[in-house]
Amino acid sequence: MKCWVVAGAAVLLSACSYMGRMVGVKSDTKRFVFTRSWVRHTPAGRYVGYNISHLMEPVIDGNLVIAGNEFDGLRAYDKTSGRERWRRHIAGGVTASARLYDGTLYFGAGDGYFYALNPKNGATRWTFPIHSEGIGAPLVTPDAVYFISGTNTAYALNRKTGEQIWVYPRQDSSTITVRGASEPTVIGDRVYAGFSDGFLVALDKTRGTMVWEKQLNSAIRFRDVDAKPVLDNGRLYVSSYDDQLYCIDEKTGQTIWADDQGGFNPVTIVGDRIYYSTSSRMIQALDKESGKVVWSRTLKDTVATQPVYYHGLILVGEWDGPLLAMNARTGKTVASFITGMGVTAKPTIDPSTSMVYLNTRDANIFALHMRLASPMDNWPWTNN
């Protein structure tokens, strides 16, 4: 039996004293601010301070925003008013992020099943037994759904019916691991995914057989490759928790360059820059071609979510701290918003409304409006 360890210690702050505080920091003489629109507590019962991460990033579907927690399942809210539209009880809740594809919501859950639901009402379309916790976000394609379960097993299921196409079990002799799993990446006829034994593996998309494997981490402690491999121009960018961020040739698996900081979230690539949250409490901007550090920001006492790019800003949530908006060019803080107990899931932005939705450590979903403090100001960061 593995001992699950979650990165970042929970800091039980008082939600009453911090809930909804808005902080704006001057940048280029203009102020960008977060303003709370609404906040909802997603569990049916009261939160009592469990050390649970609530990693599901909110999902937007039309006028709904869907959020999950690790207690009891999913809730859907009107994205403007915050009014609850439906709820779906799932024993053990939903640990990892869900993916919306062609009118169906796909995710693994804590009750040992993988689900396909109707996002309009939460009704089941199909389920598949995985006999372990669903801790990895799925990749959905027109034909199949690919994901990794809590037993380090990769699955390919028929997207419409849930029937098994193939299964690839991966043995891991380690007794301790970070509680997470890599979201696969499909390129051509291959599926790429990381595993808790420290390997990145390329599988045949049709049969699930191994094409090649590459050991990225041989550390004694946390060897996990939990980040999704991100493809850009024939290169895969993927990190291991206790080791490094790698740039790898997609076809051969050969290393092109490596950065010394490990991580467990995917990188975000914008133009010639890579934005990266490390497992050592840093946010970095790297040159995509060479891997050289452009700027680096050390957080106070916590790890952070995957960076989200928005009009020249980088948004990240600190697990034990606020949501931060940073100038993507310099890493300087532009604004912050304190939720009470930290932000554990990647922020979701609705570009049509300039709203950002957050899932927090205390299982709350926040809806925040992003704007300049003065309506007379122009957006100052896009071309910086």
Describe what you observe in this structure.
The structure is a single chain. With 384 residues, the chain is mostly beta strands. Mean pLDDT is 87; it is low at 1-28. The longest helix has 4 residues, at 15-18. The protein has a domain at 12-51 and 305-384. It contains one helix and 35 strands.
In a nutshell, what does this entry contain?
The protein is mostly beta strands. 1% of the residues lie in helices and 46% in strands.
**Physical arrangement of strands within the biggest beta sheet:** 29-30-31-32-2-3-35-34-33
Structural class: mainly beta
What's the story with the biggest beta sheet?
9 strands, antiparallel
Number of E-state strands: 35
Output the number of helix runs. Answer: 1
Q: First CA to last CA: what distance?
A: 50 Å
Notable traits:
384 residues; mainly beta; 9-stranded antiparallel β-sheet; 4-stranded antiparallel β-sheet; 35 strands; 1% helix; disordered N terminus
Topology:
Elements: E1 3-5, H1 15-18, E2 21-27, E3 30-41, E4 59-61, E5 64-69, E6 73-78, E7 84-89, E8 99-101, E9 104-108, E10 113-117, E11 124-129, E12 139-140, E13 144-148, E14 153-158, E15 164-169, E16 176-178, E17 185-187, E18 190-194, E19 199-204, E20 210-215, E21 230-232, E22 235-239, E23 245-249, E24 255-259, E25 268-270, E26 273-277, E27 282-287, E28 293-298, E29 308-310, E30 313-317, E31 323-327, E32 333-338, E33 348-350, E34 355-359, E35 364-372
